[in-house]
Design a protein that fits this description.
Layout lengths: L23 H4 L16 H24 L1 H7 L3 E3 L3 E4 L6 E5 L2 E6 L2 E6 L5 E7 L5 E9 L2 E8 L4 E7 L2 E7 L12 E6 L5 E8 L2 E8 L2 H23 L5 H14 L8 E6 L13 H7 L16 H15 L16 E5 L20 E5 L5 E6 L4 H4 L10 E4 L4 E6 L5 E6 L3 E6 L4 E7 L6 E7 L18 E8 L4 E7 L2 E9 L10 E6 L6 E6 L4 E5 L4 E6 L14 E4 L4 E7 L11 E7 L4 H5 L3 H17 L4 H14 L1 H28 L1
Parallel strand pairs: 1-30
Antiparallel strand pairs: 2-33, 3-4, 4-5, 5-6, 7-8, 8-9, 9-10, 11-12, 12-13, 13-14, 15-16, 16-17, 17-18, 19-20, 20-21, 21-22, 23-24, 24-25, 25-26, 27-28, 28-29, 29-30, 31-32, 32-33
Length: 673
Amino acid sequence: MPVYIRKGPLEIPPYEEQDWIKDEDGDYFLKDPDQILDSLPQPFRMISNLINLLFDRTWETIEEREATRAITIIKSKPTVYLPTKEIKSWGEPSSIAVSKHYVFVALSNGIKILNVLKDYSLVRNWEMVKYGMMSISATEIGNEIFVTAVDEIGVVRIFYFYKDILFLIKAMNEVEDISKQTPCLNLKVSPGGDFMAILFQGSGSIWLEVYRLPKENWIKEVEQPHLSQSKKKASHLHLKVSVSQDLAELENYLLKAEIKFSSPIQILKLKPPKPVTGTPFKSPVEVFQKIEDVYGLGSGQNHMIRDVQLEQQAAIFDILFRKFLPLTDPEQDPSTTGIHFLLPGHIMMLPSETKGPSGMACVLGVHWPGRHNFFLYSLFRPPRDKEKADSDMKPEGVWPTASPIIKSAISPCSSFVILVCEDGVITMWNRAQAFLLGVISLPEGCSCRSLHFLKNYETLEDCPFPEDVLSSKLQVLVLCTDGSLYLVNAEKASDPSISVIVERPVKHPNETICVVAPIPFLTPLILLCVLDGSVYIMNVTNSEIICELVSPASYMANPWEPVFAFIPETQSVFIRGDLEKSTQFQHYNYCLFIFELESCQQAKTSLPLSEKKSFSHSSEISSCINQLPLVKRCEFFLQNRLKNFDSTKENGLESLLELQKSSTIIQKENRKK
């Protein structure tokens, strides 16, 4: 077999025929000798080399353009949209929460409450002297609002907002000695305000406490003293007072009265699972005897592996893969513990005696930092289970994964569950119908920072059912730690797909996206916050920047920490502005800017037809419908129902015929019996 040795570096022949090398055939080198039969003669070999070179350069150009496509989109000057209103802040706003038509602002000196319907006027002020508030959340509980706030040292305070008055119910973990303080790392309230979960840290360990909120008792404790006092006044005075005077008297009484609220009831205390150790059991029979009510199956604690076997397995793994492992184990952030409240589903079936009222959360989902399992705990355990020790609390369900879980998300209807692992694998489940939507991976080197669900706007126009019923398609935004943004599409009958919306900025690190948030009242639009202080509105369907929300130049400090909130009542966005250090003065170093998107024409024109209708309809009624009493609201909705009577008349006749047929069939069956 002949051996071919390279005599010199391979060069591409020049373009002119007269400059070709005469003895090129002798100097030609093949890496694979079997290709000698397929070698092209001159000048075709030179043409092939030139074509390959052209393809290589073209491909490099395409890759460069794709990498800079997202940066070019953001760099292109979009339409500038200025704030329609600004509110001088009374301190440093660290968090904003919106519930109904109220805006709750957590400040360095307390809490401020604004009324959206009254031109953002100040309704109530709760001052804090020692420590500032770091986070705040607001949850509707009937006609009132449940508020939770966490201060700088991690103390959790729960409030009850009633008749424009903020009542302090309790400070959950406040102690006199700060050195013994157990700070709160994470807090979650279930939809409807039935349960609350708080993650604490202390003495080198973390644990999760779950409480049931006695919201029915709170409304009675607020209203009953005033009702009894008003009856006494009416029996003695027999005077007719106006509604405004009655409300004023109610407010004065509630402010002066010292109402003792019922404390939340602790129902669960959970700790991270213990590391897997060797089994003390000698036979599988002992393992099954230890398991009670099949709780904890899949957690890895029930096995028949000895300590010696675990040590041997660890030693073999260390020898084979030591060079691929990092020198030090990454530190796990305990605040990344995932906490979710879930509605009933088909994946985890509970006994009938443990189920709660319909529409109430019944399952708690938890995943701990650095762990492979997603644990499911029932919130309605039988009384005999509540008597067990906290350390023996075992989950009703376990979802194991191949890699540690770093992020998780639950859809607003709690039908979809998404788990993102450390290796970039995304698993999507449909809990309501008990099937796997799909599994897909992020590009190599990407790590998930946040997950966001998008409404399925494509079917909103044709389907009359709410989006929770449309469970066949799912769209999720994935923001990575490097600033890249991806859109994941999953459907029941097809494989999931992933597409890039914004690439990682390589040449301009200050244009990295730090926060992404879908706009709830504008379905295909999202809010992008960039490190340099810029805020953009993007259309997800075509990755197009619609407009830029620009604050005054003096309030665009760089770098900045985005603090914002969406207000569906007025179709607007709250954004905090930070005053630059060079222009800071004693008062008003921060400002809240309001951008009313209802008047933004660029946002309207980029919406689908169905969203334009809902956008205009909601903007028309949002300003007046909430100010009407209940009777007027019912009359308003009935009038709208009559307007659409012609369009639903045909469907109504068909439904009536179907009902008549079904009734006759039922009557015949009853007669036979």
